[in-house]
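Thread: Modeling a multi-component assembly for a lab meeting

Hi all, long-time lurker, first post. My supervisor asked me to bring a structural picture of a complex we are working on to next week's group meeting, and I have zero experience with this. I have the sequence lines for every component (897 residues in total). Could someone generate the structure of the whole assembly? Inputs are pasted exactly as I received them:
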Amino acid sequence: MILTFRLNGEEVHARVDYPASLLDVLRHQLGAPGSKDACEQGECGSCSVLLDGELVCSCLVMAGDAEGSEVITVEGVATEGGLHPVQEAMNRAGAVQCGFCTPGFVVAAVDLFDRKPHPSTEEIKEALAGNICRCTGYGAIIRAFEELAGREVR
Amino acid sequence: MTTRTGRRGAVQGGIGESTLRPDGIPKLRGEFMYAQDMHVDGMLWGATTRSPHPHARIVSIDVAPALAIAGVHAVLTQEDVPGPGHFGLEHPDQPVLAGEVVRYWGEPVAIVAAEDEDTARRAAAAVVVEYEELEPLIDPEQADARDEVFRRMKIRRGDQDARGSVVVEGYYEVGMQDQAPLGTEAGLAVPDGSGGVDLYATSQFVHVDQQQVVAALGLRPEQVRAHPVGIGGAFGAREDVNLHIHLCMLALYTGKPVKMVYHRGESFTGHVHRHPARMWYRHEADEKGRLVRVEAKIVVDGGAYASTTAAVLANACYFAVGPYRCDSVAVDGVGARTNNPPCGAMRGFGAVQACFGYESQMDRLAAELGMDPLELRRRNALATGDRLATTGQLIETPLPVVEVIDSLAAMPLLVDEPESPGDLPGGSGLTTEPHQVRRGIGYALSIKNLGFSEGFDDYAQARVRLTEEGAIVETAAIEVGQGLVNVLAQIARSALGVSRAEVRHVDTSRIDSAGSTSASRQTQLSGGATHKAARRLRERILERYEGDDLDDEGVWRGGLLVVRWGELVEESWEETVTFRHPPTEAPDENGQGKMHADFAVAGHRAVVGVDPELGLVRVLRVDTAQDVGRALNPESIRGQIEGGIMQGVGLAVMEELVLEGGRIRNATFTDYLLPTILDAPDVEAILVEQDGSWGPFGAKGVGEPPTISSTPAVVAAIRNATGKALNRVPVRPQDIALEEVSH
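Re: Modeling a multi-component assembly
Sure thing. I ran the full set together rather than chain by chain. Output:
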């Protein structure tokens, strides 16, 4: 089938003639490799995207299910004016090491802060519980978003 | 002419500042190029056929069904390997592709290249291999009895008849941990059209990858160039070759670029793991708690091939007593060869296993003596000028064990009552009744060597050159996420006096080896080379122009700018330095000698909440003091400390590859439990700084120590909460909730 959806604000088309995931199509057909493939089973959140505004693991979404939808990936988060505040906060806090989990954390945090601009520390942790980071031990990630939420940073 | 008065200010972005990493923004924007993301037009995809048996004879391999699939360009087996066909970090004992026998579950048997990834995987599955199953050897003690070993260690130091009045014995086990870097193994090999190949693959040590490709395939060194690429974490998993030689074979055979990416399940079989260990300990002390004698036997399971088992075992034995004084020591070690998955490097490298043993023993001894566990450790603390208990090596660099203990003891114990379900064992599942939770506190210390040991010629080369834009540091040292690209630039800025510096990676044909990104060594080794190169360059420039200062504007003399930067770099200014750490030596027949170039110590205090009925643990805090020599980038070190602690907590309470008959039962992220943000403890860290190490500006490596003693500290805290002996990590719910089964 020819799949049509909006990717980061632009209409895109992809030919899908095998049981591909949305992640596959993004990475291998649409030149958008920012979303990462680390577990292929929705455990690590590295492939997080917003599908019609809903936070999903794109490795668990059949590509066909994106037909006609609006998909936002990490590549679509920053504006021409600069980084998204979530990205700024992570950069300042040293929340990036190898960076492989980073796109997923960025998208999940954008979703969180869109819903709730001043989350508590517990709400930050709950919102990011589906994203695995193997490098940072999460400390700098928590500090980044506590700061962004206007909370006292430990 | 520009003039100025007064002293030049400190350079911007130099050492001691928490500069932001230069690759942070590209990574945050999703623009950073990882090995997984590489693409060249016309490339093929590779895939691997793996053994479904831990031990079997290969009766026949039929590649025809795979070749018959449309889009398949090559199906190669051991018969197609053009050279000697073996590789290995320390001993080339592993076949590129299994020939007559497979020795572990998941061993590569055939490789394919096809027009897309899906076709390549279908073709790999279509290769028909007939096996005759053999009995796998899966018990490392049985392997020891049959003399199936990679290495034996014997350490004897001091009076072997010394006896103490207080004796504790213990048996301890460490399960098989996986590095589980988020980025799996990935690479691209591009043939150069004249028999050579360019390799872009996940790695911790590109020069040794290049050497192994050359040796295994019978190529000339100049025919293979290995390029540093973007890597999603390593933690030891990338030190060994896995897909590198396969990619080069496929690219050379097909004449086309070939890309390969392991999926997660394949990654779990495709890289080496942390060695599982069994350890028997006997500590004897006098009434005041001073160690009189330590005896240990340590068996690590190396799995089917050598990898770095010999060095991991050596580390476990050399650090078998920990950062403590003792003048009578006997340690025996075995690195067993089995049909379990091969084990090799993981953060802490042998020191992790031993630390769980000796720190469990120190707590037992403290209990036996009725002494505070930190006080017992203070009484035995090793210091500069002492001899390492095992090897007798004189400690010549700073070793602030007492300072680490005192720092830990002085840290306020900040633990609130549970505020939210997230602070309870079992978390927001609300399985735990808050009144049932028992709190526990535990301490542990550790010691680890920095850099390669036992006489290995351990060096790093770096080049510093000046351009219009500033200074460029060229290196083949691998950035795996730890921040090397940040700290090398800081070192160059401070040593040159110039604020504009950046790191550029170059391939193996353009610079000599930087050595491995492992053993906590790159800040000291590649940092040392960068420091020396930058300092020499500065000296040469000042000498040439009779200047008294160099900065971003140019060369200064008596407050006058005599050569502007733009003029300065019209000439070629470059300096290449190979840096070596102080020499080490191989052990004598009693395991004695100067085997190590430097050491680092760390201490951890863990606070846990335990639900004894359900066996659930929440690690609430892990506070730490760490010997860092000099902190070159404090925030970056904090990142290493928090990340290292999280992996240590993982080993303490959840992470284990479960084997059954040599097969991994949980090779997925669903079944191999990794700590999430809900498991993260609060961490307070004190960086203990002391001058005197040979690293640049006195810096020590910082990557491994956080992982080593955090594990036994957490277990000590669980013991404190439950009263259980807990002689094995990871501690599982049944170990807490059910009656203990004695060994």
